[in-house]
Specification:
The structure holds 2 protein chains of 2 kinds. By secondary structure, chain A is of the alpha+beta class. Chain A folds into 2 domains: 56 residues; 90 residues, Glutaredoxin. Chain A has 7 helices and 4 strands; from the N terminus they run ααααβααβββα. Chain A has a 4-stranded mixed beta sheet with strand order 2-1-3-4, covered by helices on one side. In chain A, strand 3 and strand 4 form a beta hairpin. Chain B is an alpha/beta fold. Chain B folds into 4 domains: 87 residues, Glutaredoxin; 211 residues, Rossmann fold; 83 residues, Roll (Ubiquitin-like (UB roll)), CATH 3.10.20.600; 85 residues, Up-down Bundle (de novo design (two linked rop proteins)), CATH 1.20.1440. Chain B starts with 5 loop residues before the first strand and ends with a helix. In chain B, the strands form 3 sheets. In chain B, strands 10-9-13-11-12 form a 5-stranded mixed beta sheet. Chain B has a 4-stranded mixed beta sheet with strand order 2-1-3-4, with helices on one face. In chain B, strands 7-6-5-8 form a 4-stranded parallel beta sheet, with helices on both faces. Chain B is globular, with a radius of gyration of 25 Å. At the A-B interface, helix 2, helix 4 and helix 5 of A face helix 1, strand 9, strand 13 and helix 16 of B.
């Protein structure tokens, strides 16, 4: 969907800005708000780009830099922390060879921190895209990543 | 379209998904489809029924049967026996302590459905079917209010009930409504605060997933009482299933004429829309939430004017937490006196808690306002999972740390206030002796430093420093005097921070010092000396990081 169509769908009104930015970001293949898109949005909604950037950067769910196909969000809130989220972070770092805020060279994964995901009953917790994974251990993390990579390879093979 | 006669409900939430709940749910749908029963039996994902150690469970309603310890293979057998042959599959039937709501039960500590007000329907009805909500007295309160009560009588009833805000601050709900009702002018708003961001708290999510109509009815009653015709639910972007459920429920309520124009021929108009947040802890503060709803950065506003005078679009606005609103239908329908039968004088009704950490059965419970921490750990959460109790944090990351000596204080506003603590949002994090106080404090302060909106100086800089100092203490390299500096910063935060986000970190900090000062002092390296401040541009740039 183009930017103007998305704006039209929600109504060209500042109040709908977060919804509009959510939709634009979801539609982008690299899951971020590109500068040229914000320029366009600025023209359509008559809001200065600086204001749009300021709003987008305030919220952790928006990104101005390109991200991978799958976004891993590891919870860093205290309930997860006391049950060992630091070890999980270490496991993810080792497995993916990237740090927080970085994307793997193949563009498959981006690693982020997040505050509470509301699944503290099974801490430590991370989410990959819309799926939440709990009771994490180092072994489990590797199995989850393996599974996603495998699915990716299978999908690529099927396309051929 | 005919409604399916039977519903299989599988609690698929983050708690059970890791042990294969989704695979079980999919297998149910598949097996039932294969048998050609899809029109009669619907399979639904629902929120948790409460703490359970029975593995993946599934409730079959209206049969009132619960299966536990499920795996996809077992599902095939159950479908075969239960749905095809029509007899419950005894092998995996959960008996006795099962988490199914049994309306006849008078006391079941494990599941505690008896006496539930907010979660009474969760797991008992199909949350995607408005008829089932109505069949359980749903929308009766709204109909009663519209037909027999004047708006001020509704406000009066809520005042009399003594209900206090369940979001954390505990302000009396009826009084809040009264402020907004007193404002004149045709344009007012009701906002449901579903931006549940307090770490450790997920009660609102489970209420919205398990019984979305209760929230909608609560909002409609609020709208009627204060004279608002439009409501908004501001919900976290992360809560995908809740958003879906609420959307669906709003559509169903509109189709039944329970939302929209001239509801039930009363002349009262009310509708609800959903606004989705984008990840900012501070937006749980009501004025920041309103800013965010207007499409701006979620910076808190100066109060007064309070939202009741100038809120959303600068019009009188009433903001309530999800759990608060979910209490309203029962209060209006059954009356304030009925509501007051549960709980204590200062905190009538029930409270929903989420129990986490080193306990055997983490999860969700709804109990009356008089239970103690010890009851909750031993009776509801099945005791400590490992080690022995060291401390608990009450009310999320902004909440106080409690030591062992507080295990027997009743968890209600007044009793806690007497011993210098607050109840907070309902999260109870239990920790054993493996957790260092400094380590934990650092996790809390790092969280706050990250979530500070940066608007006011005490919060922006104070929290940053608390994070730095607690990190030093955690590694045993604190400088002499660090504790005094922390205390000073806590005082500044408490007195000068602009909003509760900046004020509340003083809670965990001061309470940690109250119970665990000797341990925190051990984090100080007494042989070290505080380095002279380095004000060179380079040093400052490093700090700004």
């Amino acid at each position: 969907m183009t930017v103007s169509r998305i704006v039209e769908k929600h109504g060209n009104n500042r109040e709908n800005l977060l919804q509009i930015m959510h939709d634009i970001q979801d539609a982008a293949t690299d899951r971020c708000l590109h500068r040229d898109v914000l320029d366009e949005l600025s023209d359509i909604m008559n809001i200065p780009v600086a204001d749009l950037v300021g709003t987008a950067t305030f919220y952790s769910m928006f990104s101005l830099t390109p991200r991978g196909r799958h976004i891993i969000r590891l919870c860093e809130s205290p309930p997860c922390y006391i049950l060992g989220s630091d070890n999980i972070l270490e496991a993810l770092r080792e497995r993916l060879d990237i740090g927080i805020g970085e994307t793997t060279p193949d563009g498959l994964f981006t690693l982020e921190h997040t505050s509470c995901l509301g699944a503290c009953g099974v801490a430590p917790v991370m989410s990959i895209d819309d799926e939440v994974y709990g009771n994490l251990t180092t072994g489990k993390v590797n199995a989850i990543i393996d599974q996603i990579v495998e699915n990716q390879i299978a999908a690529a093979r099927n396309r051929k | 379209m005919a409604q399916p006669r039977t519903v299989v409900m599988v609690p698929v939430d983050a708690d059970t998904v890791t042990i294969g709940a989704r695979a079980v749910k999919n297998r149910f749908a598949e097996a039932i489809g294969r048998r050609g029963l899809a029109a009669e039996v619907s399979v639904l994902e629902v929120g948790s029924f409460g703490p359970s150690d029975a593995g993946v469970i599934a409730a079959v309603q209206p049969d009132g049967i619960v299966y536990g310890g499920l795996s996809p293979e077992r599902v095939d057998r159950i479908v075969e026996e239960h749905f095809v042959k029509g007899r419950p599959c005894r092998e995996w039937l959960l008996a006795g302590e099962h988490p199914l709501p049994d309306p006849r039960a008078t006391d079941s500590r494990h599941t505690q459905y008896a006496g539930r007000i907010v979660l009474d329907n969760c797991g008992r009805i199909n949350p995607e079917n408005i008829d089932e909500y109505i069949a359980n007295d749903g929308y009766f309160a709204f109909a009663k209010a519209l037909s027999e009560m004047r708006p001020d009588a509704v406000v009066e009833q809520v005042k009399k009930s003594g209900l206090r805000g369940r979001g954390g601050a505990g302000f009396p709900t009826g009084i809040k409504w009264g402020f907004c009702a007193a404002e004149t002018g045709p344009e007012k708003y009701v906002i449901c605060n579903a931006d549940e961001g307090e770490p450790g708290t997920f009660k609102d999510r489970l209420i919205m997933e398990g019984d979305p109509h209760k929230v909608i009815e609560g909002m409609a009653l609020c709208g009627y009482a204060i004279g608002a015709n439009q409501g908004y639910i501001y919900i976290r972007g992360e809560y995908k299933l809740s958003i879906e459920r609420l959307r669906q429920a709003i559509t169903a309520a509109r189709a039944y004429g329970l939302l929209g124009k001239n509801i039930l021929d009363s002349g009262f108009d009310f509708d609800i829309d959903i606004k989705i947040g984008a990840g900012a802890y501070v937006c749980g503060e009501e004025t920041a939430l309103i800013e965010s709803m207007e499409g701006k950065r979620g910076l808190p506003r100066l109060k007064p004017p309070f939202p009741a005078q100038q809120g959303f679009r600068n019009k009188p606005t009433n903001v309530n937490n999800v759990e608060t609103l979910a209490n309203i239908p029962a209060i209006v329908y059954r009356g304030a006196d009925w509501f007051r039968r549960a709980g204590t004088e200062s905190m009538p009704g029930t409270k929903v808690y989420t129990i986490l950490g080193h306990v055997r059965r983490p999860g969700l419970i709804e109990v009356s306002g008089g239970v103690t921490l010890r009851d909750i750990i031993d009776d509801y959460a099945g005791g400590m999972q490992s080690g022995s109790f060291k401390m608990a944090q009450l009310g999320g990351t902004a909440g106080d740390l409690l030591g062992e000596e507080m295990l027997d204080v009743p968890l209600n506003y007044d009793a806690l206030e007497k011993v210098g603590h607050v109840l907070g949002s309902g999260a109870i994090l239990i920790m054993n002796e493996t957790i260092g106080v400094c380590d934990f404090l650092h996790a809390c302060m790092r969280f706050f430093a990250h979530e500070s909106c940066g608007n006011c100086n005490p919060c922006r800089n104070g929290l940053r420093w608390l994070s730095v100092i607690t990190e030093r203490l955690k590694s045993g390299t604190g400088y002499p005097g660090d504790i005094e500096i922390m205390e000073e910063i806590a005082t500044v935060l408490k007195t000068a921070a602009f909003c509760p986000l900046g004020q509340s970190p003083a809670g965990p900090l001061n309470s940690a010092l109250r119970y665990f000062r000797p341990e925190i002092e051990k984090g100080i390296d007494v042989t070290s000396a505080r380095p002279k401040p380095d004000h060179t541009a380079r040093a400052l740039a490093t700090f700004a990081g």
